[in-house]
Specification:
Number of strands: 2
CATH class: Mainly Alpha
Oligomer: single chain
Low-confidence stretches: 219-226
Shape: globular
CATH topology: Arp2/3 complex 21 kDa subunit ARPC3
Strand order of the largest sheet: 1-2
Distance between the termini: 49 Å
Strand content: under 5%
Order of helices and strands: HHEEHHHHHH
Helix content: over 70%
Number of helices: 8
Mean pLDDT: 88
């Protein structure tokens, strides 16, 4: 999913960089209005966990491999604004220090791997939570659905970017089939890892999970009614 330098034209990379900078600035402003101090340590832990987890690859198909993207996980744990900032930090470090994703393509990678999962993915998580029971099972089900879908959405975003500014190395239809086909499988791994992680935190400290707000109140109400 990390786009290297030169894969898309300069105009697309520059435009994506401007969009990514604007989105990051907006996230910083919004996070400043939120309870930033209380969730700052959690955000740092989430960024460190995603950075470490992305080092681990799992086989997919045809000799390809995938790894955790982590944008939806971060959004569920600390909210979409801080989640996007956590992933942006991870991507900047990966690009500048580990050459994982091109520097000129950093804006594209931030959009695809941070903001698409953190906002579009979290939007789907929020909708799923609205129709599912206000319980741990409901949160984990919504997490699995949104984590899987966020990977497919990120792959679709890349396909659109390639259609606009690709270098012509392959037909857009071929790129779309390859990206979506592989990332559907990667999405299964993303859903599994994300759901297990959220489930582990739910089991011990549900109060720390932004996306699980209301679970404890519902549990307390059920206990009183019982």
């Amino acid at each position: 999913m990390h786009i290297p330098d030169g894969f898309l034209d300069a105009q697309s990379s520059i435009a994506a960089g401007v969009v990514a900078i604007g989105a990051t600035a907006a996230s910083l402003r919004q996070a400043g209005r939120d309870t930033l101090e209380s969730r700052a340590p959690m955000t740092g832990l989430v960024a460190a966990f995603v950075f470490s987890a992305q080092m681990l690859n799992f086989p997919v198909a045809g000799g390809t491999s995938g790894h955790l993207m982590g944008g939806l996980l971060a959004a569920v744990l600390v909210g979409p604004w801080l989640g996007a900032l956590a992933l942006t930090t991870v991507l900047v470090v990966q690009s500048l220090l580990f050459a994982d994703g091109g520097v000129s393509a950093l804006g594209l990678n931030v959009i695809n791997m941070a903001f698409v999962p953190a906002f579009a993915g979290y939007g789907l998580f929020w909708l799923a939570r609205r129709v599912l029971p206000a319980s741990r099972i409901g949160v984990m089900t919504a997490t699995a659905f949104a984590a899987f879908t966020s990977v497919v959405l990120a792959a679709a975003a890349f396909t659109l970017e390639f259609a606009i500014g690709g270098n012509g190395a392959a037909p857009v239809s071929t790129v779309a089939a390859a990206m979506l086909g592989v990332h559907v499988l990667i999405g299964v791994g993303e859903a599994l890892i994300t759901t297990l992680t959220v489930g582990a935190v739910l089991a011990s400290r549900p109060d720390l999970i932004h996306g699980a707000r209301g679970i404890e109140k519902q549990a307390q109400l059920s206990a009183v009614q019982a």
